[in-house]
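Researcher: We're teaching a course module on how sequence relates to structure. For the next exercise, students receive a sequence and then see the predicted structure as C-alpha cells, so they can try to spot secondary structure elements on their own. Here is the exercise chain.
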Amino acid sequence: MNARLAVLLAELRERFPGDFDPAEVARFLRARGVDRRVIGELVATLERERAGEVRLDRLPGPLFRVEGPHERGRFSPEAWGHLLGLLTTGQVTQADFEAAIDRLLSQVDGQVGVREVRALIEGIDPRDDGSTPLDAMTVH
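Model: And here is the predicted structure for the students to work with:
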C-alpha cells in the first residue's frame, strides 16, 4: 500500500469508528480526489475490519502500472521493475513516479537502465560503482 492510501485508511478508522455508512465514506473519499476503484477497496477493508476479520495492512490485489506505447522499449526490464518497486513500497508517490518517467524519457538518450533510474530517484552518482561515466545520460 502506498503511503497516501495508508494515511487515508488510518484517517478513515479514526473518522468513522464503529458502524458507518459506506456511502458517507465514499463521499468523503471522493471529495479527497480518490479513484473510484480505490474507494471500493478502502470501504471493503473497513467493512472487513468492522466484521472482526483480521486487520489488513495492505489493500487487496496488487497496484501496478503498465508501460505505455511511448515507454515500451525505452526502459530495460530491470529499470522498470526498480521503478515499480519504489512505487509499490511507498518510497515514491504516484505523482513522483510519473514525473520520474517523463524526466527519464526526456533526459536519457537510448534505453533507460537501473543506473539512470537510481541517479534520478535516489540522487546517487551513477558512477559510484567505479565504472566509467554514462555516455548516454544527458542531464538538463
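Model: If you want an answer key for the exercise: The first helix runs from residue 3 to 15. The radius of gyration is 19 Å.
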